[in-house]
Each structure stands twice: as structure tokens, then as C-alpha cells.
Design goal:
Elements: H1 4-15, H2 19-57, E1 62-66, H3 82-90, E2 95-109, E3 114-122, E4 138-141, E5 152-155, H4 156-162, E6 169-175, E7 181-192, H5 197-202, E8 203-207, H6 208-215, E9 224-229, H7 235-243, E10 250-254, H8 255-258, H9 260-298, H10 300-308, H11 313-348, E11 351-352, H12 354-357, E12 363-364, E13 367-368, E14 372-373, H13 379-405, H14 409-413
Parallel strand pairs: 3-8, 5-7
Antiparallel strand pairs: 1-9, 1-10, 2-3, 2-6, 2-9, 4-7, 5-8, 6-7, 11-14, 12-13
Helix pairs in contact: 1-11, 2-9, 2-11, 2-13, 9-13, 11-13
């Protein structure tokens, strides 16, 4: 009886009997693996950056807000004690930062122009570029120094539309917590430029305490508590945990519930990439199948002799399956060698796509698309690709292995 280790050694020798064909097969497996890793890594990096940027532009990876605010986003839908919600969120081990915000819509007026815009009110002492990307987008002027400062920051296109410059006054009109119209005046402290046209043309910022006074909010009252995670993929789990820890009047929403347009775009792109990778695996599997099938057809007489001296059909089946397994394992090694340098270059340097995007930049669902193509692949995705390659290789060997086990010794020995 032939034992497993001897069969594995025999399978290893068999795949090298036709070196040229084996090398071509290994290169195809390696090239397919490289494409899968690089494309998945680009997807992970690009979409991860977009999700993080969307979180830094809006309400974080998870947002705590009034349960009716998502459907009716008015400044009357407040959370009464944002500071207490912040403390609840900070006790979760997945949470990295938590900040309080007020957001909504405002009418801006100058001597000659009127424009509506969205706004974000924040505490400059509690936030930085890791929680609010707009802080690093200042192109003129200075960021607020305190939460009680009187001032306003405008997007570049919005400032141009209002025909206003640094230091000039802007009248802003909005509704307070009681639904009454209130007005106030602020000087332009800074102008921001993000590269996202809708943001530059339709967003302004206020210091949070100053706006609280205008809106007649209580000192701890706000619209949103933005929660930032170390890993945005855990947003749903965190939202579920926080929902069980806060009052029923407060909703805990993951980023994709706040930004459905961006989530839909990412889902569509992920589905397209999965289809493309499946197509690559099918093509690779077809090449492996051709190699194994031709190898079996060329060795029918040999298989007949092996069965005549005591090998069982099951042993021959295992032999061919071990050959396909060897091809898959060595192909993954070749794939790792082919992938190493391109992955390192894209991970550390990346490809600058700004010349293709143009001066205005590209925008997706209100979020500026990255202008540098980098890669970062999550470990579980890398493992999934490796398993998929091995399964495709083994699946390609099933029919040739079945054919090898069906050889009739007497008839195959007569073959010349």
C-alpha cells in the first residue's frame, strides 16, 4: 500500500516532468494572485480613505444624535447632554476619539449676495485634522482659537459667491432650538479649500459655544456626538453596542447610514471588483485544468501500470489532486514574489493621479476622491485570496484526477 508522504513526493516529481508547461502554469497562478492582491489592496486603501474622510467631514464613523434628526434634520432635534454621551462612547475599547458638534443649514448674506450653506460648529480645542479634515484645508486666514470666538470660516467657492474676503462681515440666519428665526453677524476668520466642489461651495464653520449662544442652546446641548474608531470596519458593531447604552431618544448610526450615497458607491465598486477577481480566478483555473488534463492524458499507460502493480483508483485520484495542490502552493509563492515590489512601491510611494483628475479634483457623494493611488490589504482579505487560489487549483484537478482513477490497466498498458 502506498502511503501519503510517498504519494506527495511522487506528485512533486510529476509536476516537474514537463518544466516548461509547469512554469507557464505557475506564472499564470502568480500573475492572477498578484492582480487580485493589488486590486483588492487598492480598493481597501481608496475606500478606507474615503470612509475616514467622510467621517472627518461629517459625524464620525458612528454618530450619536436625536432619533428623529436623520429624517428631519432641523436644529430643534438636539441631544440634551452631549458631554454625557461622549463619556459613554469613550468607555468602549474600539473608540479612539469623541467630539461634540452642531450641524445644519444656514443662510449667509452680504451687501450684495445671499447663499444657503451647510455648517459645522465645533470646538477647536477638542479637535484637530484627525477628527475634522477641514482644519488642514485652511488656505487663507487662521483657524478659530477658542469655542467662544466670534467668527465664521467659509469654503473658497462660497466666499467667492458671496463676494466676501477675510475680515469682512457676514450675516447668518438660521432657526434656533424653538424653531424661531435668529440672526447674527460674524467676521470671516479663514477660507478653506478641500478640493471637493460641493464642500468648497456649500460649507461654512462656526465655533461651537458661540453658535450655542445664538441658537439659545444649553451649555452641553448639541446636535451630534461624533465617534471615531481605530478600524472603521467595526462601525456597525459599535453602533449596536452604543444603542444599548444610551437613552431611547438617541440613535447610534454607523457612517453608511449617515452617508448612504457614499455607501452605495462603495458597495457597487466592491461588487464590480469581486466579479473581476472571480473572472481572473476562472481564467487561472482554466489554465491549471489544461495543464493537469494534458498531463493525465499523456500518462494513461503509466497509470495503467501503476494500477497493475497495486495502486488503487483512489491512490491515483489522490496523486493528481496532490499535483494540483503542489501547483497551487508553489503558484502562491510565485505570486508573493511577483507582488512584493509593486505592493511595496504602491504602499510607500503610490501613484500620483492628480494630473488625470484635474485642478478641481474628483468628488464622490460630497467626498473628495484620493489623488494618490496607494495599497493596503487587510489580513483577512489576503488569506481569502490565498484560499481562493488553492480552491480554484484543487477544483481544476478534480476532473483530471477522476479520469486518472478510471484507467483500465489492460487497455491502457497497450497504449503506445
Amino acid at each position: 500500500m502506498v502511503r501519503g508522504p510517498s504519494l506527495a513526493a511522487l506528485a512533486w516529481r510529476n509536476i516537474w516532468r514537463n518544466r516548461r508547461r509547469t512554469l507557464l502554469t505557475l506564472v499564470s497562478i502568480g500573475f492572477g494572485s498578484m492582480l487580485a492582491v493589488l486590486f483588492t489592496g487598492m480598493q481597501n486603501s481608496q475606500f478606507g480613505q474615503m470612509v475616514d474622510l467622510a467621517a472627518r467631514l461629517g459625524g464620525g464613523h458612528v454618530t450619536l444624535q436625536h432619533f428623529e434628526y436623520l429624517d428631519t434634520p432641523t436644529l430643534t432635534r438636539t441631544v440634551q447632554d452631549a458631554a454625557a454621551l461622549r463619556e459613554v462612547a469613550l468607555h468602549d475599547p474600539d473608540v479612539e476619539r469623541v467630539v461634540e458638534r452642531i450641524s445644519g443649514f444656514v443662510m449667509l448674506s452680504t451687501a450684495g449676495q445671499n447663499y444657503g450653506a451647510a455648517f459645522i460648529a465645533f470646538d477647536p480645542a477638542a479637535e484637530d485634522a484627525t477628527t475634522l479634515s477641514l482644519i488642514e484645508a485652511v488656505s487663507e486666514g487662521e483657524m478659530f482659537r477658542s469655542a467662544g470666538e466670534k467668527g465664521i470660516i467659509l469654503g473658497k467657492r462660497l466666499a467667492e459667491n458671496l463676494e466676501v474676503k477675510l475680515g469682512r462681515k457676514v450675516v447668518y440666519t438660521l432657526t434656533d432650538k424653538h424653531g424661531e428665526i435668529v440672526r447674527d453677524v460674524a467676521r470671516v476668520s479663514a477660507i478653506i479649500r478641500t478640493g471637493a466642489p460641493s464642500v468648497d461651495a456649500g460649507l461654512c464653520m462656526f465655533p461651537i459655544d458661540s453658535l450655542r449662544e445664538t441658537l439659545r442652546y444649553a451649555p452641553k446641548e448639541g446636535i451630534q456626538v461624533a465617534v471615531f474608531l481605530r478600524d472603521q470596519r467595526r462601525a456597525d458593531a459599535l453602533a449596536a453596542r452604543l444603542a444599548s447604552r444610551v437613552e431611547k431618544t438617541v440613535s447610534a448610526l454607523a457612517w453608511h447610514e449617515i452617508q448612504p450615497d457614499l455607501a452605495g458607491f462603495i458597495a457597487m465598486k466592491v461588487a464590480g471588483m469581486v466579479f473581476f477577481e472571480v473572472l481572473i480566478m476562472v481564467l487561472v483555473a482554466a489554465g491549471i485544468f489544461n495543464t493537469l488534463f494534458m498531463s493525465v492524458m499523456e500518462r494513461l499507460r503509466e497509470f495503467g501500470i501503476m494500477m497493475a502493480i497495486g495502486y488503487s483508483p483512489a491512490s491515483l485520484f489522490r496523486l493528481v489532486m496532490l499535483e494540483s495542490l503542489w501547483l497551487g502552493l508553489v503558484g502562491l509563492v510565485v505570486g508573493a514574489a511577483l507582488t512584493a515590489w509593486p505592493y511595496y512601491y504602491l504602499a510607500t510611494t503610490g501613484l500620483d493621479l492628480s494630473s488625470f483628475v484635474g485642478e478641481g479634483g474628483a468628488e464622490i457623494a460630497g467626498v473628495a476622491a484620493p489623488t494618490t493611488m496607494n495599497v493596503y490589504i487587510f489580513p483577512e482579505n489576503l488569506v481569502a485570496i490565498g484560499i481562493a487560489v488553492l480552491l480554484a487549483t484543487l477544483a481544476s484537478g478534480l476532473y483530471p484526477a477522476w479520469q486518472a482513477g478510471r484507467v483500465v490497466p489492460v487497455e491502457s498498458i497497450r497504449l503506445v
